[in-house]
# Entry
Amino acid sequence: MLAQTPSSGAPRMTRRGDMSRIHREFHRSDRIGWLRASVLGANDGIVSTASLVLGVAAAHASRSGVLVAGVAGLVAGAMSMAAGEYVSVRSQADTETADLARERGELASDVANEERELASIYVKRGLDPALAEQVAVQLMAHDALGAHARDELGISEVLSARPVQAALASAASFTAGAALPLIVATLAPASLLGAVVAGSSLVFLAGLGALAARTGGAPVIAGAWRVTFWGALAMALTAGVGALFGTAVG
# Structure
């Protein structure tokens, strides 16, 4: 029997069961790890540095003072993001490793019970008990630990924790994001520094939100609006605090 295979171009016909011509699908789930870390880093870099610049500028500091504070914030923020991301994802990786070690031990000591456990998972997902048992037997014969990691523990190669990758992505993206308001602060007229930094940073945030949404397959407008709103709120609050303390000190 022939069946149409969906594709981005014209439909093509394949025989059902012809495993040599499997339709390839495009998914974005393999981007989750680095995309989350990169978006978080860039967003934090723009928001925290722009807020710091606005707060210091609102306190009537000189341009050199504003830039020194901004650069210090960039360095501290990048290191903090890298360290925090590494520790967080490393903890996740340690938990996954411990779960896999325990599962490996259970497979070595009681493979029959592990086979029944895997079959029960497939029954809960809708398979007939006899078929579920057959699937469990075949999958465990192929890769017992992999089958249990994926279907019992929810650990897969695509979604597994990668601490170093996450830390580097966070630090690099934070630095790139933080550099944008600093460049603007360097070039903007002293009298308009706050307004120019705030306006340009909102544009950067909107662009970042739209790019992240598009990369992840989410609605672009909603992604841009979400990032811009929270960034504007953070900058407004920081500028208000800077103005308040600058007036009080002055």
Remarks:
- The first helix runs from residue 32 to 58.
- Confidence is low (pLDDT under 50) at residues 1-16, 25-31.
